[in-house]
Amino acid sequence: MARVLVFAVVAAAVLTVFAVVDCALTERARVRALPKWGWLLVALLLPVVGPLLWLVIGRGPSARRRAMRVIGPDDDPDFLRRHGARPLPAPRPDEARWRELEQELANLDSDSDDEGDSGRR
Fold first, then answer.
1. Does residue 48 lie in a domain region?
2. How far, in Å, CA of 39 to CA of 30, rounded?
């Protein structure tokens, strides 16, 4: 039992040291939710929980990870601007088409009532 306790204490210390060093070396732009000094205090004052909070919540994505985000060329405004194209505006629904679809739906509703579907329930 003593070995497990010693292992747990060593693991907690390693986790705390890792989190504190990682927090201290992380760029200010990647720190979320609290200022960097706040995360250092949380990691030091709350054993195990503080370092885990830093690793899960406090550390934002790296610049490399943000750059890996893939956007299709037709959705990328920079790509379209470079090639002289304007993004297409979203299609506006045609009022006549809406009325036509509503009429078709009303016809379908009235057809199903005529067949006696309400008696089967």
1. yes
2. 12
